[in-house]
UniProtKB/TrEMBL annotation:
It comes from the Eukaryota. Transmembrane segments: none annotated. GO terms for molecular function: hydrolase activity, acting on ester bonds. InterPro entries: GDSL, GDSL_esterase/lipase, SGNH_hydro_sf. This is SGNH hydrolase-type esterase domain-containing protein. Keywords: Hydrolase, Lipid degradation, Lipid metabolism, Secreted, Signal. GO terms for cellular component: extracellular region.
Amino acid sequence: MARTSPCLSLFFLFCFLSLCTSSDSAAFRRKQRVPAMFVFGDSIVDNGNNVYVDPNITTIYLPYGVDFPTGPTGRFTNGRNPTDILGQLLGLPRFLPAAKDPKAKGKRILYGVNYASGGSGVLDSTGGKS
């Protein structure tokens, strides 16, 4: 399997962000570019799934969320995470709900769902307690 160079990945990310911040960026952000976004990953993009998985691993307290519009949500950041920003750039109308959130159904999931969970990985031993 071919591997992509980290430099090449950063180059494409830089090109995408440059396009988004060009003089016509307001028009770019207003138009919805994709119908939905489904997120898989670890704590970098987790938006609160761990709150519903293991109450001992939670981030619903300050300083987490100090810069987020609604306060602490379970994100492992003090504000928006990369998928929140990408969703905004792609024109999605709101933040994606956490998949484990009991309210994540019906019209709330029309624009996507975030399945990311802090501590997740591809190996059985990932995130395990030894």
